[in-house]
Amino acid sequence: MKKWLFLFLLFPGTLIFAQSASTVSENNVCKSPILGRDIRYSVYLPAGYHENDRSYPVLYLLHGYSDDNTAWIEFGDMQRITDNEIASGKAPDMIIVMPDAGVTWYVNDYSGKVRYEDAFFHDFIPYIEKTYKIKPKKEFRAIAGLSMGGYGALLYSFKHPDMFSACVAMSPAVFTNEELLAMSKERKAMFEELFGKFDQNKEGLNNYWKQNSVLDLVKTYPDSDFNKVRFYIDCGDKDFLYRGNAALHVAMRDRGIPHEYRMRDGAHTWNYWRYDLKKALHFVGESFQR
Predict the structure, then answer these.
(1) Is the Cβ–Cβ distance between 151 and 248 less than 8 Å?
(2) Which residues touch 218 (CB under 8 Å, ≥6 apart)?
(3) For the purposes of burial, counting CB atoms within 10 Å of the CB of 237, is it exposed (0-12), middle (13-18) or buried (19 or more)?
(4) Rounded distance, CA 238 to CA 225, Å?
(5) Is 174:154 a contact under the CB 8 Å cutoff?
(6) Would you call 223 helix, strand, or coil by DSSP?
(7) What pLDDT, on the 0 to 100 scale, is given for residue 19?
(8) H/E segment holding residue 278
(9) Per-residue pLDDT averaged across 224-250, rounded?
(10) What is the pTM of this model?
(11) Which stretches of the chain are assigned E, i.e. beta strand?
(12) Which of 143, 85, 141, 56 is nearest to 282 (CA)?
């Protein structure tokens, strides 16, 4: 009480209330009937979230292979970067949700045993947007990710263009068919467990892969959807994924699909993605503020 009396005397006629800082929590769960288990997730809430009744846009931020919902916080310095970009006015206030996808590659596996994509859209997003003060409209919903998460962001945006206003793919794990066939036996087996056995004599390797290959989805992307999602794709010039990313850029350019494509000096590293996160926040922020 003495503290507030002091503030009132210091600034006559004015009551000053300090706005709470942003918060990040990692130990959250969403029950998923489709998966038959919980989906763990982390969430970033901007400064002042608990002191007002407003609703916020949301960014779903996806992790890479072998990481989890804490990766962007622990290695990506997500909270500090986001705080700084919002404070500088380069990005608007937003909620950022980071789900744990394990090594699912964000897809429904071909056998139908692990339907992560279905769970993301039918269990996870509805739960998140009921639990937090989120504007539940496409215009205020964006998706981004790195590596495997970059693939997931592209996959979801091409297959569900009515769900997101913007997509940022950072060093997305986009592979050509030739690259998949040239992989080691162990690595190729990982993809075949998800997408089914590859046939090098079959166009597209197999039908299920064609339905989930970003490069194939570009070919069948309806003309009517071209302007539904704003795309930003970035890959380092020393990144081992340069070939698939370059092929994606060419395929999108040839189809006339609007997108921004950047190649900077760098490799497949957190140092690269921390800088990318700043650009991602600016890009999706532009979509939220249209």
Answers:
(1) no
(2) 158, 248, 251, 252, 255, 257
(3) exposed
(4) 32
(5) yes
(6) helix
(7) 67
(8) helix 270-288
(9) 97
(10) 0.92
(11) 23-32, 37-45, 58-62, 95-99, 141-146, 166-170, 230-236, 260-264
(12) 85
**pLDDT tens digits along 24-52:** 999 999 999 999 999 999 999 999 999 99
Q: How far is 100 from 79, CA to CA, in rounded Å?
A: 17
Q: Looking at the chain, how many residues does it have?
A: 290
CATH 3.40.50.1820, domain 22-288, yes or no = yes
- How many CA atoms, within 13 angstroms, populate the side-chain half-sphere of residue 246? 10
Q: Which two tokens stand for residue 85?
A: 């970009």
| Residue 189 banded pLDDT, cuts 50, 70, 90 | very high
The DSSP code sequence of 5-72 is HHHHHHSTT----PPPPPEEEEEEEEEETTTTEEEEEEEEE-TTGGG----B-EEEEE--TT--TTHH
pLDDT (tens digit per residue) in 67-119: 999 999 999 999 999 999 999 999 999 999 999 999 999 999 999 999 999 99
